[in-house]
Write a structure and sequence with these properties.
Layout: H1 2-14, E1 23-24, E2 40-47, E3 50-56, E4 67-73, E5 80-87, E6 98-107, E7 114-122, E8 129-135, E9 143-147, E10 149-150, E11 153-154, E12 160-164, E13 170-174, E14 179-182, E15 188-194, E16 202-209, E17 212-218, E18 229-233, E19 241-245, H2 252-255, E20 257-265, E21 270-278, E22 289-294, E23 296-298, E24 301-303, E25 310-314, E26 319-322, E27 328-331, E28 338-340, E29 344-345, E30 350-352, E31 358-364, E32 367-374, E33 380-387, E34 392-399, E35 406-412, E36 420-427, E37 433-435, E38 441-443, E39 449-451, E40 453-457
Parallel strand pairs: 10-15
Antiparallel strand pairs: 1-25, 2-3, 3-4, 4-5, 6-7, 7-8, 8-9, 10-11, 12-13, 13-14, 14-15, 16-17, 17-18, 18-19, 20-21, 21-22, 23-24, 25-26, 27-40, 28-31, 29-30, 30-39, 31-36, 32-35, 32-40, 33-34, 33-36, 37-38
Bound molecules: (2R,3S,4R,5S)-2-(hydroxymethyl)piperidine-3,4,5-triol.
The site of (2R,3S,4R,5S)-2-(hydroxymethyl)piperidine-3,4,5-triol has 10 residues, from strand 6 and strand 16.
């Protein structure tokens, strides 16, 4: 009996989808059902030993609100889909054909209830306010209550965030830098503690370290990424001191927009994890990814000096470390890669803008990763990973567009069980592009897809 149980357990483990060994940025993540994790404009709440991720669910066809998802994880690497925590309402301000963005959940210390805040709006972004919803259980379902009131009136602002101070006080942050202190039940505003600091300053996020508040935000560039910047102050009431960019200039915050900072407190250190979105309009469900990086502090400055494809966190100690890799590197011109269609080849890259052009590699290993030279003339690639019988393990639509060109990991499979696999990447003939409410055009100018390298993590012997 005992032996049978062990065999079954290890078989079941080998079948688990969405199992990861590190925090990977800029690649689609797959949940336990093999679906792409859709939780943007997110935040994370820790309850006992579990992290809960709340974020925007999306479709690839419209920007209309389709609900806020909840996922859980014990390690911050592998995410399990839990629930649609707040579904689209039958009617009203978060009903059909409305906008719902940036859900942020906090547990109210006084009542023990979970309160979710969000930006609600019309599809044309002309009816914005900060709304809230409540639930007794962290996973929801959350009940939408309408606008959060300050002096009996809604806060008519768009991008928002939240911050919970060490004394348990809850705050709502809005674009531009206004800060609102919540009442004890977290369901209305007690006081506006900070006025607007600057114009823009979207996607506000905050952390506190050694008594100093750090207030991070982005410029206003629709879904395009930009160089995010921050202020510091010893009081939430200011004065706020401008501290400059949080990542090297021109990297556009490593091609992301901030949404939240998660303090990961251990026995030795606290790691502050920057959480950012790499938006991908219009395919926000399939192709928008996450940029989660440990913040590096030097005196009173913070930064993300280097982009880490993969890093690990020792949750007990609170220490972040780079992920060591034993990956085998296969370059774009290696004979193991079979190309179909028209491709332009150099020593560092093969690229094609022909619809349905593809490349395939057969391999055996624990994980496979694709590195591309992302650029302003790149579009969407379809990536399909199958086993040797042709059964699809995972598939994804990967965005190879970036306003600045850089060698990037754009796909990484979950950990695979021992076996032989095939990865095929196709040109979809589509690209991310869109216009904002002022009719400014953004996004890619071409449909290229690109391969520079494939990396394979060998099986353990
Ligand atoms: C930038 C904001 O930060 C996003 O949340 C979203 O509202 C887009 N603008 C819409 O263009």
């Amino acid at each position: 009996m005992y032996v049978i149980f062990l065999i079954n357990a290890s078989y079941a483990f080998a079948q688990i989808h969405g199992k990861y060994d590190a925090i990977y940025s800029g690649t689609p993540w797959f949940d336990q059902n093999g679906n792409v994790v859709s939780a943007h404009g997110a935040n994370i709440v820790k309850e006992k030993d579990t992290f809960y991720l709340f974020g925007e669910a999306h479709t690839d066809t419209s920007n209309a609100f389709v609900g806020f998802n909840c996922y859980s994880s014990k390690d911050l690497y592998s995410w399990k889909f839990e629930s649609m925590a707040l579904p689209v309402q039958k009617s009203g301000k978060l009903g059909p054909n409305r906008v719902g963005e940036r859900p942020k959940v906090m547990k109210c210390p006084k009542t023990g209830e979970f309160i979710m805040y969000m930006h609600a709006d019309s599809l044309t972004y002309k009816d914005q306010f900060v709304g809230y919803a409540v639930s007794k259980k962290i996973k929801g379902p959350y009940q939408f209550k309408g606008p959060l009131l300050f002096n009996g009136k809604p806060i008519k602002k768009w991008d928002m965030g939240t911050f919970q101070d060490t004394d348990g006080s809850g705050y709502v942050l809005v674009h531009g830098g206004e800060i609102y202190k919540l009442n004890d039940d977290y369901k209305s505003v007690a006081e506006k503690v900070n006025e607007n600091i600057t114009s823009g300053f979207e996607s506000p996020a905050m952390l506190k370290k050694d008594g100093l508040y750090y207030f991070i935000g982005s410029h206003l560039t629709s879904w395009e990424k930009n160089d995010n910047y921050y202020y510091t102050s010893i009081s939430l009431r200011g004065p706020w001191i401008s501290q400059g960019l949080i990542a090297p200039e021109g990297t556009l915050t490593w091609n992301s927009q901030c949404t939240f900072v998660l303090p990961i407190q251990g026995t030795k250190e606290t790691t502050y994890m920057f959480m950012g979105d790499r938006w991908s309009f219009p395919k926000q469900a399939s192709s928008a990814t996450y940029v989660w990086q440990p913040l590096v502090f030097s005196g009173k400055s913070l930064s993300i000096p280097n982009y880490q494809d993969a890093w690990q966190i020792d949750l007990a100690k609170g220490i972040a470390s780079s992920k060591e890799t034993s990956d085998t590197i296969i370059k774009n011109n290696d004979k193991q890669i079979e190309f179909k269609g028209n491709w332009k080849n150099t020593d560092s890259e093969s690229k094609s803008d022909e619809k349905d052009a593809s490349f395939t590699i057969k391999f055996s290993g624990q994980q496979i990763a694709l590195y591309s030279l992302v650029s302003s003339e790149n579009g969407y690639a379809k990536v399909v990973l199958t086993d040797e019988k042709g059964k699809i393990i995972v598939k994804a639509v990967v965005d190879m567009y970036s306003k600045f060109s850089v060698l990037s990991q754009v796909f990484r499979s979950p950990v695979l069980k021992k076996g032989n696999y095939k990865l095929t990447v196709y040109n979809t003939g589509e690209r991310p592009n869109w216009s904002d409410k002022k009719k400014n055009i953004y996004g890619s100018t071409g449909n290229y897809i690109s391969i520079s390298q494939i990396k394979i993590k060998p099986h353990k012997i």
